[in-house]
Fold Octaprenyl-diphosphate synthase.
Amino acid sequence: MPASQSMGPQGRVTEVDIVVMAAPCAKEQARAGGIDGLVSLVAGDMERVNSFILSRTGSDVTLIPEVASHLISSGGKRLRPMLTLAFAQLSGYEGDGGIRLAASVEFMHTATLLHDDVVDESDMRRGKLAARMLWGNEASVLVGDFLLGQAFKMMVEVGSLAALEVLANAAAVIAEGEVWQLSAAKDLSTTEEAYLGVVQAKTAALFAAAAEVGPIIAGLGERERKAARTYGDSLGIAFQLIDDALDYGGAAELLGKNVGDDFREGKITLPIVLALRNADADERAFWTRTLEQGEIVDGDLEKAIGILRSHNTLEATVQQARRYGDSAIAALDAFPDGAMKDALVDTVAFCIARAY
Amino acid sequence: MPASQSMGPQGRVTEVDIVVMAAPCAKEQARAGGIDGLVSLVAGDMERVNSFILSRTGSDVTLIPEVASHLISSGGKRLRPMLTLAFAQLSGYEGDGGIRLAASVEFMHTATLLHDDVVDESDMRRGKLAARMLWGNEASVLVGDFLLGQAFKMMVEVGSLAALEVLANAAAVIAEGEVWQLSAAKDLSTTEEAYLGVVQAKTAALFAAAAEVGPIIAGLGERERKAARTYGDSLGIAFQLIDDALDYGGAAELLGKNVGDDFREGKITLPIVLALRNADADERAFWTRTLEQGEIVDGDLEKAIGILRSHNTLEATVQQARRYGDSAIAALDAFPDGAMKDALVDTVAFCIARAY
């Protein structure tokens, strides 16, 4: 259990330390490179993706580039388009299609963020005011739609019906996952299985599609497609589970996240699902009042964190993420050894190490 | 000018009569069939489109079919998918692709309606409570995204990259038009040209795409594609201009519309643009207070209608719609004579006759 913890004046967690909860596994210790390997291997392509993104957010309607740039230039890691470029390279692809598909993937992701902020009524995104706070919900909804339309236009330009199928399917699955999450919000009977289903749909589906289109445009077969999909899917789930743990502390502030957003929105994430399983009557009453009924008073977030820690569920969530990370790494067996494969292994470790 | 007009207790227009403002042109008088011809010629295909639509709104996430059915079964005319089926038939197409494309077009339209209601904060849609009033803005945004994703999946299944290109382009243009409209809201300096640009994007682009995919899947060339696009584009503009006029009276209640929505939202539609052109100082002050500053008091809607009538701008808007209707009819020259072509001529008259 953590040794020290200090609360800010508004009861905000200002320093938390999931860091000591779970020692990094051997694989993670062996890889110090983090995401740098991936970044440097796709750097040339990413530059082209970035110019392409800029050129496709242009519009005579000035509100569009304003809103889009706010989010696109706000320092996201561009993990999803990097996956497309990485798996295209790993599959021996040498054409131009990967650039457009990577840009499409980033547009789909940005559209989702814009719509999510409206749905969650979030004030902040990546440490900046959310677009909806600056331009209103209307602009966030419509610019999201514009980016989605542009994404499909770019995919069509690549001319691969198989890639289009994978990405169109992801678009539908992501939205389905978001609606599912909305329906499950505040529902304390959500099971671990149901929760992982939501995560797979709303987060992992785009990671999986981003990776799978690499072997597709390279003309590889089902074995490599499936391996890429599994890598993306598992990495996406691991990524989201770490996010869930971060919402109750950890390095959240460094990452520009608000601690406690999920709690205030009544989201039943894995740390909560696991804590509910062993909750005594007092704890159940606490979760019912805060998450189900939305009656949150000063000190409740700290109490929630205390309960999660007493049941070790933040640690268990990180451990679960680690297991998905291991599946992601195992899936890479279908591809040839080399610098790119090493970089993709490091990327898994990087995603999990965000918790520290 | 109209002879009689009565106001409801809340100052709501309960009986208005744009009907006497402009006598139907000879072409409209000659065609008594309205939309019935089109409906009966595509009836068999539309039945398949409807089952297809139902099958594709299914989801384990029960909120999705609930929200989607609310809108899809709420008695829209299905004009856009009928255009796809009609132009596919008119182009001699005999395959199954038209069914899926027509369903895609209806999904795109439904997604737009769901998002529009959130953006406009509308309470009503087609005479029923808007989905957002029943399930919240969140569900409207996300179910709209789901339908858009499903639309692209269905398009991909048809396997025509050219049709995909046209529809993906329409998706981006529609959203761009909506953002444009948002930026131009409350802006009294909006020109007629700028306004028609918005209409072309937000409304006519989908009509144009819906029609154009017909000759595309039939394998016809640029001449027929362009003709179908022009028909859809012109019909769409005419349709929207009639809607704009209806917002200030006419047969609005019969059509399940609220009179005065555009006025209350500060939308600068064509009747307003034309009235501003010849506004005296008092009138300009009135429009500035109501549309630009959003300060609307009892009796303002009736005063607005009075001003529009004194400048004949509702009549001028209907006349403008009629001119677009004539271009739509002229574009049909590229296609062979027959029952379908007659039905498409009648459809133009029907769209304009909604004003009466």
